[in-house]
Amino acid sequence: MTDFLLELRSEEIPARMQEKASADLARLFAEEIAKSGLKAESIETFATPRRLALIARGLPLQTEAVSEERKGPRANAPEQALAGFLRSTGLTREQLVERDGVLFAVIAKPGRATAEVIGEAIPAVIRAFPWPKSMRWGASSLSTESLRWVRPLQGIVALLGDDVVPCSIDGIASGAETVGHRFHHPGCITIGNAGDYAAKLRACHVIVDPAERRKMIEEGAHSAAAAAGLTLVEDPGLVAENAGLTEWPVPLLGTFDRAFLEVPREVIQLTMRTNQKYFALNDANGNLAPNFICTANITASDGGAQIVDGNHKVLAARLSDAQFFWEHDLKVPLEEQAKKLGQIVFHEKLGTVADKVERVAKLARWLVEEGIVKDASPDEAEQAARLAKADLVTGMVGEFPELQGVMGGYYARAQGHSDAVADAVRDHYKPVGQGDEVPTAPVTVAVSLADKLDTLVSLFYAGEQPTGSKDPYALRRAALGSIRLITENGLRLPLLKGLHYDAAYVAADVIVSKLEGLRSEIKEVADRILGDKSIEKFLVEKIAGGRSFNRESIADQLMPIHGATVGLVAFFADRLKVQQREAGVRHDLIDAVFALGGEDDLVRLLARVKALQSFVQTDDGANLLVGYRRAANILKKEGYTETSTRHAELDSASMNTDGASTSATVFMDPDFRQDDAASDNFGLSYTPEKEEADLLAALDAAEPKAEAAIAAEDFEGAMAALASLRAPIDAFFDKVTVNDSDPAKRSARLATLARVRDAVHRVADFARIEG
Predict the structure, then answer these.
(1) pLDDT tens digits for 638-680?
(2) Cα–Cα dist 771/768, whole Å
(3) CA–CA gap between residue 197 and residue 202 (Å, rounded)
(4) Contact call for residues 266 and 409 (beta carbons, < 8 A)
(5) Which residue among 69, 216, 489, 514 is least packed, with the fewest CB closer than 10 Å?
């Protein structure tokens, strides 16, 4: 067994591509040698800005002989078909093996030298490499068939043990020579084998292991900061990026003019991080310090003084630009900036960003006025919503789009708006991702939720629903953000009502685009639409009635709004299952509650789901589920679909052949009272068996308790009431014949099972529960 070293040296590889490239190199190499039956005991990869490397450990010097079996034609096939198969295999008819009338070719492949296999694999790996972006270079680049690589490929080291594996591609031949650090050791060095690769390059100021370079940067940056009495602002992503930019990283501490600290710290940090790859620092009080740490790629003879000075000058120019944007933007009130939003198209079917802002402002105010978001001022919610997108047209956000919202919050506060409004402008995009914090300030919650709900309603109307892995408008993220805002703040929002309210304004904007001169009237009417009214019917009656334009054309415009809200409920259900899966909540239980219909209060829904999950994990719950399924299966088989059983109609079996009613009714007294049950056999026309009477009595006791508990949102209490049905149901199925020959008994017992089903369905659709 021996080790193999492969190094592919090129001009600078972008830092963001190095990690995936290392994984791709290991994968492609393993796949290529596996074609000849080779497999390494382990594969280790390395990456620096100028090289990708791989060490495959534990390779044999020779591959084992293998045989390949190929299926041919039938033995009685025409000679022409047989001749073609023989040509493809290089065998004669006598060398073929016949099994069950079919001919097979068994082709023996002798073992090969591992060096020969690897020599063929290296060019194949290089040509198949999946760089996100690649280039051609030199005279050969005139042909589209020429070699492509992320940057011009300059050298190949290929060593199996101590020997060079001969191969070449595009005129670049393999060897044992590479180069060290560009400045500290620019000359060639010879690698002996895989074992001394990392050590020889280290001696030439190249650290080939990215993890080691990351550690050097972290430790050096923390040490430099501590020496100045400062603390490093942690940024693992920036550490990794600097490690991908250097082969010999040396962190250095620098300073910038304290006057720049008047600019918001997010601007300074983003300027340093994005443009210069610098680390930010905090002082002893946790405030941003006028310092930075840059990562040099050299150990300078002057301790890095000139490097720091050069970086200081570049950063000063960048911060001067940021300061200009800050001061210039402050001179223009956000209200004036917001007027420019009418020049930005939100979506071709939905108008401008100004139109969206108008809808969000109305919805945010409605959320507060309806008491859904409590302890907030309706005026502040509306004002914050109208200002929330204004920073999109500022110079600072134009330069740094990542700061949208953040800069609006700074401008709002600096221009005299209340803290509640400024905070809402700043945080209305939150939560952005799964790990992002959820706003709790009431005004912020109202604006953030209104913004997300409007995005969902309007873009669903525009036909931009996510499909497969495609979600260009991040609607899944918007739905998850809405769910977190609602559930973590305990908002009692009837989801359909909120969606319909916003849909009314989307509908108004749609109609306005078709009917000039009616905008104010439509807005006024739409403002009165609630979730329990048909948007189409209401608008057509109140706006289109008596006018000259075509009612049907308006309906055509409004129908997609209905589809959008209906589709959104299912979309929210799917996102809720995704969000709750991490919390250990079963998706089938969410389905079981959603299937009831009418449950669009997510806080209440999750309380019901969690109570249901606890219940089905108990013996009572599991056994009740079994009894429910047995009852539901019988009812399904009998085609029994009634949902009310106390006063069921006659079963078809109790009718005469001519359709006239017999004297056998299911219930004797349609005005049956609960307290008469013992004296008149529960209103039945026959004396029920004990187990039947016990189940009816249990239902009479459990149903009102469960209903009262559900009304009080005491779902644990509702489950406890249902649990009392477990034993009577078991006994009923053990002792009572449902499909009795007596039609009255059969019908009454089916009605009893339907009562069981319906009682359970008041809590959840148990048919959706798995297991």
Answers:
(1) 887 644 333 333 333 333 333 333 323 333 333 333 344 444 4
(2) 10
(3) 9
(4) no
(5) 69
Residue-wise DSSP of 382-443: HHHHHHTTGGGGSHHHHH-GGGTTHHHHHHHHHTT--HHHHHHHHHTT---STTSPPP-SHH
Position 17, amino acid: M
CA distance 216 to 350: 52
Angle, vertex CA 590, rays to CA 586 and CA 596, nearest 5 = 150
The Cα-based distances of 522 to 348, 507, 508, 564, 569 in angstroms read: 21, 9, 6, 20, 26
pLDDT 10s digits, 109-137: 788 899 999 999 999 999 999 999 999 99
Please check whether residue 377 is in contact with residue 443, taking contact to mean a CB–CB distance below 8 angstroms: yes
pLDDT tens-digit series, residues 732-749: 989 888 888 888 888 888
Amino acid found at 518: L
- Count of C-beta atoms within a 10 Å radius of residue 610: 17
Residue 150 has what pLDDT? Answer: 95
User: pLDDT grade, residue 230 (50/70/90)?
Assistant: very high
The pLDDT assigned to 381 comes to 97
Buried residues in 237-276 as b, exposed as e (16+ CB within 10 A): ebbbbbbbbbbbbbbbbbebeeebeebbebbbbbbbbebe
Beta-strand relationship, 188-190 and 177-179: antiparallel
- Beta-carbon contacts of residue 259 (< 8 Å; ≥ 6 apart): none
DSSP secondary structure code for residue 667 in this structure: B
Helix (H) or strand (E) holding 235: none
Q: How many C-beta atoms surround the C-beta of residue 640 within 10 A?
A: 19
By C-alpha distance, which of 479, 703, 483 is closest to 609? Answer: 483
Distance of CA 183 to the CA centre of its chain: 45
Distance CA 645, CA 287 (A): 70
Cα-Cα-Cα-Cα torsion 612, 614, 617, 619, nearest 10 degrees, comes to -90
DSSP string, 125-173: HHHT---SS-B--SGGGGSTTS--BSS-EEEEEEEETTEE---EETTEE
For the chain, the first-to-last Cα distance in angstroms comes to: 52
Strand, coil or helix: 108: strand
The one-letter code for the residue type at 522 is I
Q: What percent of the chain has pLDDT over 90?
A: 55
Quick count: other Cβ atoms within 10 Å of Cβ 214?
A: 19
Please check whether residue 178 is in contact with residue 189, taking contact to mean a CB–CB distance below 8 angstroms: yes
